[in-house]
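User: Sequence in, structure out. Go.
Assistant: Echoing your sequence, followed by the structure tokens.
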Amino acid sequence: MYLPARHRQHDPQAMHALIDRHALGMLVTIEDGLPLADHIPFEFADGGERGLLRAHVARANPLWRRAGQQVLVVFRGPAAYVPPGQEEKAASGGRVVPTWDYHVVHARGVLRAIEDPAWLLDFLRGQTHHHEADQAQPWSVDDAPPAYIGGMLKAIVGIEIAIERIDGKWKGAPSV
């Protein structure tokens, strides 16, 4: 990502907050020399030097088999097209162009696959609690029959990325 100094986000808390608010990350891996992108809801967790990204995928998804690979996860925050204003046009003699303002975070690290049912259950409980918290009648993993949840746990694999590098780009102040 091209990152001029004036657009670099230096505040880790701001980057973590963007990940929390815009949790659907684009996970980029390589297979047969080609980049692949999977769109997965992540959660940011404390751990390591720069934090952890955690998620789960269907066992049928070959993504988790790329464990050990260096990966990139892109989180897109608010974005907006910015037309040049009439006053700008007049003041500059028409020497203005439209632009695009956006906030984005790139996180890099090594992909790890986790098949431990206890880890998965704990992760799913936490993730569900987080996303259901503002519902009038929040659903809990424990609302489903244990045998059903046990079967579902066999059908997924956890993934975790210890963030080795994180970059944020805040270009302008998107109104979206």
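User: And one key feature?
Assistant: The first helix runs from residue 12 to 21.
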